[in-house]
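#structure-requests
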Amino acid sequence: MGTLNLHHLRLFRAVAHDGTLTGAARRLNLSASALSSQLKALEAALGQDLFERRGRGLVLTEAGRIALDHADAIFRTAEDLSATLRETGGLRRALRVGGLATLSRNFQMQFLRPLLGRADVEIVLRSGSQTELLRGLDALALDVVLTNLAPARDAASRYLIHRLAEQPVSLIGTPRRVGQGAPIATLLASQPLILPTAETAIRGALDALIARLGVVVNIAGEVDDMAMIRLLARADAGLAVIPPIVVQDELEAGTLVEAHRLPGIVEVFLAVTLDRRFPNPLLGGLLARQQEGV
């Protein structure tokens, strides 16, 4: 086999991800016939058919799937190298951070605090869903994703999951609503509750606690955003089930008070990175600093 033509490999990758010759040709601004001839040249160089036609689409052969795995790895490495070397020549280095939209803003600030105010660092912070953020991580548009949801991993996964912190979860409300030291079971049964939504780990553990205590609760609201739970607690809409770090300022000011730590219930904060050949050097120090306290 002769020298592999990386241009042909890039075109093959585009067609493989698109699934159609015409769609890939349109995105690449090529004619379908020109794209087809270059794919044939790649197949001839590799000595293998990479696609088989099914209806109007193209399906990868076994050799095509192997080729795509290698092509993805080759071009991810090239993009990684380009992004890293492009930044090393500048006066400022960027750290691109994705934060789950529902994650505590206080925790995100705590994670980034060592870099805040540094003249040689630019922090780019993006908020979104887990799916959106992991897509950005895969595309090297983000260096790290801060989340409380561990992404699924398998043998082919490139995700590295770093456990940063574990926070207790408490019943928190205004001084008027918390009252004078009533037991957990009494507060859960007597006060309206502002809860995380059912798909969260906190909610699953809370439901199990409620079942063990044998109480019936009044749910005032189910919210998928910690910032909104914080606002509802401040507005005295009920007792919030929330990590104290989320309402740290209010607890220090006395606007809100912690009634009880909920036994056996914690929120785990994670950083998700890719197994990159050229990781962002700013990230290593942040991860090491956080993990010293775990």
